[in-house]
Design goal:
Low-confidence stretches: 3-14, 124-131
Strand content: 15-25%
Oligomer: single chain
Shape: globular
Number of strands: 4
Order of helices and strands: EEHEHEHH
Distance between the termini: 84 Å
Radius of gyration: 18 Å
Strand order of the largest sheet: 1-2-3-4
Length: 136
């Protein structure tokens, strides 16, 4: 009897997908919802899915992190690099639903400044940046 070196896990009916595209509504953004714990493999799949769907520079792809529990911070630099490359070739990409924990993971991975450029917030939640007084 030969045993497999790596145990295999079968998907169960109650397993949620890591990625789910919402049907576009009119001229609205293409929305991809993410779920659960995302490792390098899942983040790579998200980057590939964005590249496939967001080909036109007129498109807006909204990546919804609201249902994400954890991100592999080691894979975030590659993920962000792929998203930025996609923005140079095709659609504009924005992140939404980021929790404080997820923002901290982006900071730990060194992607915090880039995240501030990619994150989208509804108008009511935007905090105006304070400028220092001019000293006149």
């Amino acid at each position: 009897m030969i045993l497999s070196a790596a145990p295999t896990r079968r998907a169960f009916a109650f397993d949620r997908p890591a990625i789910q595209w919402d049907a576009p509504r009119g001229a609205g953004p293409l929305t991809v919802r993410l779920f659960g714990r995302l490792a390098a493999r899942e983040l790579g799949q998200v980057a590939e899915a964005i590249a496939e769907r967001g080909r036109s520079p007129r498109d807006l792809v909204l990546v919804d992190f609201e249902q994400v529990e954890h991100l592999d911070y080691r894979a975030l630099p590659d993920f962000v690099r792929a998203v930025l490359a996609q923005m140079n070739r095709g659609a504009e990409v924005r992140f939404a639903g980021m929790t404080r924990y997820l923002r901290d993971l982006f900071d730990v991975s060194g992607q915090g400044p880039i995240l501030s450029r990619l994150e989208w917030m509804p108008e009511g939640q935007v905090v105006a940046m304070r400028r220092p007084p001019l000293g006149l």
